[in-house]
Amino acid sequence: MTVHQDLRRPDASTDAVPDLDETTRRPGTTAEWWRSAVIYQIYPRSFSDSSGDGIGDLPGITARLGALDALGVDAIWLSPFMTSPQKDAGYDVTDYCDVDPIFGTLSDFDALLARAHSLGIRVIVDLVPNHSSDQHEWFQQALTAAPGSPERARYIFREGKGPEGQEPPNNWQSIFGGPAWTRITEADGTPGQWYLHLFDSSQPDFDWSQEEVKQEFRRILRFWLDRGVDGFRVDVAHGLVKDQDFPDYTPDADAASMGGEATPAPYFEQSAVHEVYRDWRLVLEEYAGDRALCGEAWVSSVEKAALWVRPDEMHQTFNFQYLEASWDAQQLRGVINDSLRAFTAVGAPSTWVLSNHDVVRHATRLALTGENPQGTGIGPDYPGLPDRETGLARARAATALMLALPGSAYIYQGEELGLDEVHDLPDEARQDPTWFRTAGERYGRDGCRVPLPWAADADDFGFTAGGTPWLPQPERWRGLARDVQQADPDSTLSLYRRMLSLRSEHDLGLGELNWLGGRSEQVLMFSNQDVVVLANTGTSSVPLPTGHEVLLASSALEGDEVPGDCTVWLRRHAG
Ligand code: NOJ
Questions:
Q1: Can you give the residue ranges of the Glycosyl hydrolase family 13 catalytic domain (predicted)?
Q2: Cα 20 to Cα 5, 74, 385, distances in angstroms
Q3: 286 carries an active-site annotation
């Protein structure tokens, strides 16, 4: 039995439920759980609605944690559930230390955490330090205070250009479209200063050169750490510090991106941002129980990503290079090698991720025949939509490859059901600020945020206790509902369960990758621990290696052949 199974399964013969902090200190268990964990992202709005308002909530999550325990995940990451006007689905926070009423209460959060810990599942919460909501008390104070006041200093207010200050301070564009500056009206009714918002105008950026901002976030970290969370996913981790000269900047691509340009924007990857995380690391280290930070930093290479996880900074960072790779053996081999090299060099695990709430679901994305500019989304008129069968086969194969890699892996809710992108949402249903800020030119991310199907025959597929789901679910998801898949050994859900169980049994997260060569260019083959993995990214079949037992296959084998878009896990026959 592996360490992870020890942690996850309390001894059935006793009623005692281990407290995670105790467990991680137990001799013989690995304290650094985040090095190999499989972390399941919950997007609370779309997971499960217990209140019947059509929006998912914390009690809804708690009630369904058994399903995640059965899946075999080590931890969950909750996208924001803090008090928020929901202009950007919770990434616009008014009170960092309370729960928004649509999601429940702090007691509901405590209950969720206790239940997760009783199942041996760790809980990471989302922290949004780059910006607050414009409804945040601090921003409201800044609006009524004078230019140059301490209240304004918490955000980034500047005078406009031109004789009347009528032009924005520079040409920066919001990532959601349109200018990144908005002009306010001063308390006396005159046109006033401009404030910076890298995202929506309802999301003003904090000024991280201010000691008060730093102190406030230390307080917020401690608030959640005191409640018992196991860590934080840090939103826009590369964006907190801006070039203090505020130079004009035009990104390479037409659409603004979350980052990742070879020459970083003057609002991303500034070296002083690392001091923030060095400071936070010290805060986390005040606490027992091995708490972790994971950065959301869109940068242009894994070498750059590794800067976020140097030994005195964060524990993990998302590997978006991996997410952005195509289903192509050479590309995948390159990014896997680069990742393992770069992260190992700083003593950190690589992470692996294929989907999240900001990108086209990988059951669609990996088989698109057209372009996919990140964050722009795809709509009903998108010309390169794949057939669903190919998309799903590729997604299953890609996930089987990902979950065989050493390091920590992230799973986005619904991918275990093989959900595809809902490209055909009606215009009037769309809610992403990107859609509004570009007057419908860019679809945005609603298509990957549609509420989950739990039960094929229930109203709204069992997502809500009576409401109308906040985004409509497509009829085609009936056959993908969790209850249908639970009973089917060939379902995507059954495949995920098997992958997670074998990954744990063979300790793949803590293993080492060794390439095995001699196959065709469309094939990736390697060993990790005692498992041999073969991923066929091509369309034609390849022979199954002889002398091996098949542990799993992401789709049905054709006799002794591995079909295209299929990954197999094998074990060498003894003797
Ligand atoms: C990244 C988050 O993942 C995304 O959903 C959000 O819109 C932006 N940061 C702004 O907070």
A1: 41-449
A2: 13, 12, 44
A3: yes
Of 3.40.920.10, 3.90.400.10, 3.30.1340.30, 3.90.1740.10, the CATH number of 137-196 is 3.90.400.10
CB-based contact 74:33 (threshold 8 Å): yes
For residue 49, which of 61, 33, 67, 31 has the smallest C-alpha distance? 61
Give pLDDT tens digits for 304-335: 999 999 999 999 999 999 999 999 999 999 99
226 pLDDT exceeds 70? yes
Mean pLDDT of the chain: 93
Residue nearest ligand 1's atom 4 by CA: 358
Report how far residue 504's alpha carbon sits from residue 484's, in angstroms, rounded to the nearest whole number.
25
Helices and strands in the chain: count of H runs, count of E runs: 16, 20
- Determine the pLDDT at residue 482: 98
Choose the residue to mutate in 41, 126, 199 for probing ligand 1, maximizing ligand atoms within 8 Å of C-beta: 199
Which protein residue has the closest C-alpha to ligand 1 atom 2?
235
Residue of 96, 133, 235 to test ligand 1 pocket, by largest number of atoms within 8 Å of CB: 235
Check residue 30 and give its pLDDT: 54
Instruction: For residue 535, give the H/E element and its range.
Output: strand 531-536
3-class DSSP state of 217: helix
**Domain 38-130+211-500: which CATH class?**
alpha beta
Which helix (H) or strand (E) is 504 found in, with range?
A: helix 492-505
Q: Whole-model pTM?
A: 0.94
Domain definitions of the chain by residue range = 38-130+211-500, 137-196, 514-572
Select which of 205, 235, 416, 432 is catalytic.
Answer: 235
> Does the annotation mark 421 as catalytic?
no
Contact 193, 169 (CB under 8 A): no
